Model the fold of this input.
Amino acid sequence: MPQLLPDGGAATWRQVSGPPSPASAREFGVPSLGFAHVKGTRHEARPSAAVDVHGPVGDREFCFVDVERRQVLKTVQNPRLIRMTTSLVDDILTITLPDGRSVTGVPAGSGQRLTCNYWKRPVDLELTDGPHSALASEWLGKPVRLARARRGDVIYGAGLSIVTTASMRELADRSGHHELLDEAARFRATLVLDTDEPFIEETWRGRDVTVNVPTAAALRVRIGDPIARCAVLDLDPITGERGSNLLKTLVASRPRNEAGEPYFGVNAEVIETSAAPDTGAATSQRR
Done:
């Protein structure tokens, strides 16, 4: 697999021949595993989550939909979603608002199915009954329904997304947003990996990496394409308020796709969930 490097200030990546950097084979730690049970709601650390070949179990298992418009609600258009926290235990979903109100119940299928638009692709969803839709509708100020999605259907990219501590430190220094490491949830990444070299993860494309999650079996994951970022990055991960200059900083300093969206982090897919643990937290090897 050829290595990919940013092509100057252009909006593309260029391929270079030869072996990847030896630094890409070093070991690194896994300080965070996180996701949201309901798409768009707060991205929370879930260190005890089970992980299978599709990714974390329960990751974006549900979403809110605008039934009339047949649209899946997205965070960038509905930032108040971020202030909603969730837990899912034994199929019982709890949604809690910042004012303390909450609802708990099993999101039972209503028998109604709805095909909705999600980033210009159709997704078949099952509308649910229960108290969750009413609370969310009141909080968001418009009628919405909680729906159950098939695994991966309301995930924009791959089953896993990865950002690294070194890349976040570089962005923190460049932007002056020095609390960024404490706000890693801005990136809504499944895994945060501990590295020393900024953007080294981009040289791992096409490689299999063994990740030792402390509360799960070792995972063999395959690194994919870089992740293009949007305005969600500038939303506070707790309040949902806009205000940082992170996206602007990335646009000025990072490679971009054809739409002008800057890259930060990488997609990945789980290849094996029973990989033999390494002595460190993760290693990378050429395929």
